UniProtKB/TrEMBL annotation:
Protein name: Cytochrome P450
Species of origin: Corynespora cassiicola Philippines
Domain of life: Eukaryota
MF-aspect GO terms: heme binding; iron ion binding; monooxygenase activity; oxidoreductase activity, acting on paired donors, with incorporation or reduction of molecular oxygen
Coiled-coil regions listed in the entry: none
Amino acid sequence: MFGWDADYFRPERWLLEDNNKHADQLNTIRRTNKIIFGYGIYQCLSKPIAWLKIIKVIFKVPLLRRLI
């Protein structure tokens, strides 16, 4: 249903197949990731909470998989 590599983390699978556009898309993604939370006085107030949630998911998901 999701392809032969559904069990592997490969975010580039969603990029276009054209190699020239591939590099442009990666650069756009990187620039966007830098501005998500903002900087300085315009920084997102919930950034620390978001990072705690991200870290929690990263460490808990493998632990839950072991229990299943």
